[in-house]
Amino acid sequence: MVKATLPSTHWLYFLDQWDPKSPWHDRRVRLAANYAIDRHAINRALTRGLSRITWSIVHSTFDLYWQPPPYPYDPTQARQLLVEAGYPNGFDAGTLFCDVQATTLAEALVNDLKAIGVRTQLRPLERAAFSTDLQRRS
User: Fold this and answer.
1) Between 38 and 6, whose confidence is greater?
2) Is residue 42 in some structural domain?
3) Which structural domain range is residue 20 located in?
4) What CA–CA distance (Å, rounded) separates 110 from 102?
5) How many domains does the chain divide into?
6) Which residues are within 8 A (CB) of 83 and not within 5 positions of it... i.e. 6 or more apart?
């Protein structure tokens, strides 16, 4: 059996984190999202555990690579961080846009965020529309 690899990096980007009125502006909320995501369960469900969780969008062979510390899956800690940030009942995070090819991954992220009270609606877009929308929002 031949194993094929597909290099692919996925991440959530909170465009509203620069807006002081947005919940995402608070580092604790962004940290809560990190603790809420069960990366290993997603890996098992979507790729039968064959994906390598790297914690970085930069490949380890690149110059100036830095290995960030991993975040454990800890929904209790995630909820506590939301309480500390002033969102004891969570909040409405609006729409999560994704490239349609990443819909299954995005659905898992939405479910993990909902479990800690961060409510969002998923809107998959065809790649050209996604890229255009991302460029417009940046």
Assistant:
1) 38
2) yes
3) 16-48+71-137
4) 12
5) 1
6) none
User: Other C-beta atoms within 10 Å of 118: how many?
Assistant: 24
Any domain includes 100: yes
Asked whether residue 1 carries a pLDDT value surpassing 90, the answer given is no
**How far is C-alpha 82 from the chain's CA centre?**
16
Which H or E element spans position 106? Answer: helix 103-115
User: Using CA atoms, how far apart are residues 32 and 115, in angstroms rounded to an integer?
Assistant: 11
pLDDT in tens, 87-133: 999 999 988 888 888 889 999 999 999 999 999 999 888 878 777 87
Residue bearing tokens 């975040």: 71
Specify if 132 maps to a domain. yes
What share of the chain has pLDDT > 70, as a percent?
94
Q: Cα–chain-centroid distance for residue 134?
A: 16
Q: Can you give the CATH number for the domain in which 42 is found?
A: 3.10.105.10
Contacts 24+ apart (CB under 8 A), 129-132: 130/97, 130/98, 130/99, 130/100
**Position 60 in a domain:** no
